[in-house]
Amino acid sequence: MCTIIEFNILEFSKDALVGLRISDGQVRVGFTDRLSVLPVRSLSGNCLLEWGNKMDSKLPRTGFCKKESILMGKWSWLCPEPVEIVANRGFSNGTWFQIREGIKGVKVVGRDGKEHVYLLTEPSTHYFKTMTGAVRMPVLIGQVI
Questions:
Q1: Which residues, other chains included, contact 128 with Cβ-Cβ below 8 Å and sequence gap of 6+?
Q2: How far apart, in Å, are the Cα atoms of 129 and each of 10, 118, 134?
Q3: What is the pTM of this model?
Q4: N or C end of the chain: smaller count of CB under 10 Å?
Q5: Cβ–Cβ < 8 Å for 143, 99
Q6: Which class for 55: exposed (0-12), middle (13-18), buried (19 or more C-beta within 10 A)?
Q7: Is 133 helix (H, G, I), strand (E, B) or coil?
């Protein structure tokens, strides 16, 4: 599982980054952070959306979505939309790993009309599991670890 991501500060306006951890031109966001948002790439530009759900009882209380669950239609009641999460590094179980193009995610809308994004996961490859000890890994765009 990937619990922290990093992305380039130049991808977003300074106003959008208020309250986030910034170091050496990189923004670091963790799922357990008080302000937990993910950078999403869209046709209208990049935006920051709330990472998963910590409060809205109608949405799954997690920050992650199994790829298999999407394929089996378990999230269809939420009308999930595929999105690209902007990231150049991820963190899982004490290990950082490079991300070339980004991570696949799904966007859903809560009952209050607020958009949330969930990081899409799949079973870990042998290498990723050996490297991190994690049984699940993010679904990366154009890359397999």
A1: 92, 97, 134, 137, 145
A2: 32, 21, 5
A3: 0.86
A4: C
A5: yes
A6: exposed
A7: coil
Q: Which residue, among 87, 124, 119, 115, has the nearest Cα to 105 in the 3D structure?
A: 119
Residue position matching structure tokens 């009308």:
79
Residue matched to tokens 């990049």: 46
pLDDT in tens, 47-62: 888 899 877 678 989 9
CATH number at 4-138: 3.90.1680.10
CA dihedral 14, 102, 3, 106 (to 10 degrees): 90
* Structure tokens belonging to residue 121: 């996961």
What is the gyration radius of the CA atoms in the chain, in angstroms? Answer: 14
Alpha carbon distance 80, 71 (integer Å): 11
Residues 17, 2, 74, 69: is their CA dihedral positive or negative? positive
In the three-class reduction of DSSP (H, G, I as helix; E, B as strand; rest coil), residue 117 is classed as strand
- Laid out side by side, the sheet with 95-98 consists of 21-23, 26-30, 4-8, 89-92, 95-98
Q: What is the pLDDT of residues 104-126, one digit of tens each?
A: 999 999 888 889 999 999 999 99
Collapse the DSSP code of 29 into the 3-class scheme (helix H, G, I; strand E, B; otherwise coil) and give the result.
strand
Q: Which residues on adjacent β-strands are paired with residue 51?
A: 117
